[in-house]
C-alpha cells in the first residue's frame, strides 16, 4: 500500500508540474491573441447557438460591425473603467452583432490586460465577492457603428450585460445587449439574473439577457482555443 500510495503521489506531483508550464504558456500566449488570431476567429461572421435562448430556443447572430482595435478609453462607464484599471489595458477588441429577427443587437468585446496571473485572480475575486457584475453603474458601453442596425445603440439602450474577469488568460470579456430600434430600457438586468428560470424582466423576456451571455460565452471560448487552452465552463460572474 505504501508503494501504491507513493506512486499515486508521484503521479499527481508530475501531473501538477506538467500543468503549470502549460498554464503559464497559455496565459502568455493569450496576451498576443489579439494580433495573431484572424478577426473571423474571435468574431465569426455568423454565430449559431442551439437551445440557448428563452425556453431553449435556438439563436442565430450576424456580425454587423467590427471596431478598429484600440485602447480602452471611452469603452466603459467611468466606474467600470476605474474598477478594471488595476489590470491595465494593452488593447480593446469589439464587434457588434444583430440577431436573426433584427430586433436585438449585442456588442461583445475583450480587454487585453497588462496584468499577471496574480493580478487577474485578485480582480476576479473582487468582482465575485463584491458582486460588481450586477451593478448597473458598472455596465460596459456598446459599439454603435454608424450606418448599421446598431447606429442607435447608445448607453440608454443597454438592456443586459456580462463582464468576466478571466484568471487563466490576461483578458476581460464582456457583452452588452439592447433593442435594435433604439428604444431606451428602464430596467436593465445583468445577464446572469436575466437568464434564470422564471425571470420576468424586459431583458429576460426579450432574450437580450441570453444574447449577452451567449456571445460572451462564444468570445471567451474563442480566446481559450486560440491560446491553446482547453475550452471549459464559463467562469461565472458570481
UniProtKB/TrEMBL annotation:
| Native source species | Streptomyces kasugaensis
Name-wise, this protein is: Uncharacterized protein
Residue ranges, annotated region (Disordered): 188-211
